[in-house]
Amino acid sequence: MKRNLLRLSLAAAVSLSALSVQASEKVNIGVPSWTGAQAIANLLKVVVEERIGGEAELVPGNNATIFQAMDQGKGDIDVHPDVWLPNQESFTKKYVDAAGTVQLSENAYEGNQGFCVPKKFGEDNNITDIADLGRPEVAKLMDSDDNGKGELWIGAPGWASANVNEVKVRDYKLMEFIEPIRAEEAVKTARIKDAVAKDEGYAFYCYKPHAVWYMFDVTMLTEPTYDPEKYVMVQPSDDAEWFEKSKVATKDALKNVQIAWSKSLKDRSPAIAEFFENFGLNADDVSSFAYEISGKGRDPAEVAKEWVEKNTDRVDAWLGL
């Protein structure tokens, strides 16, 4: 009888200890504005809460805010869910390489980026290359506000890629004909929808993975083959004269996209940090997530939960099970 009571007491103590460990596992996940990042952030949250038994909060922020918080290591924001390199290289050089306060995952997926037009608009006007946007008759077809320049959406405010694209518009000799537009991604999506429905001219920054490839019939324009000597990008976070000191007259190289997290997380929430080390998706996963969210209007948390339930083997591998 005493042995049974002792065993029960020990079992209860172990259970309470496990619950205590789980309760201490907490993470604040940064959420940048683009759909892919929102999808991955929600996926991380679902795994932490439903499989690890920890607590996770989503915290909106831009790249600079998220990296600064990870560097401080106080838990305000612990993880960036979608780091595109070399787009965000200025941040990784500062906090991953120099300061050593932020860690990058090793399981990257491949990203590709460029400029797109609706396929029919491109075919009807023989638009296949980025230089074609500088033809006066093409620029006129994209001039929705009659200011004499065609609009080209280059990204949302705060995106490192938007800065790159603005430099590209200049160095591709398009500034005379094209006005680079920064606006939230929802504005771009609505504009594509209108352009396709009304057979109007439109051009926009595009990338893979992304929901746009599921939502609309669009085509990516060719650019000069990537040449590192013609790709010198200085971000505003590094130099106030970034625009003058940058030169980008070539297509971007293919990207490595991965998550990053504060190294302080390993001491505060070791199980979550271990999960991040093993975490990895592919481009098709992210495109599918983005389509469900922005294409079908579904709740990101619902999409993430559904995916976790359908992919238990992959999630188990992330958790070392």
Descriptive terms for the model:
321 residues, alpha/beta, D-Maltodextrin-Binding Protein, domain 2, two-stranded parallel ribbon, 15 helices, 47% helix, disordered N terminus
Report on this structure:
It is built from 15 helices and twelve strands. With 321 residues, the protein is an alpha/beta fold. The chain has two domains: 149 residues, 3-Layer(aba) Sandwich (D-Maltodextrin-Binding Protein, domain 2), CATH 3.40.190; 138 residues, D-Maltodextrin-Binding Protein, domain 2 (3-Layer(aba) Sandwich), CATH 3.40.190. Strands 3, 4, 5, 6, 7, 8, 9 and 12 form an eight-stranded mixed beta sheet that branches. The longest helix has 23 residues. The chain starts with a helix and ends with a helix.
- Sheet with the most strands? 8 strands, mixed
Number of DSSP helices? Answer: 15
% residues in beta strands: 15-25%
The outline comes out as globular
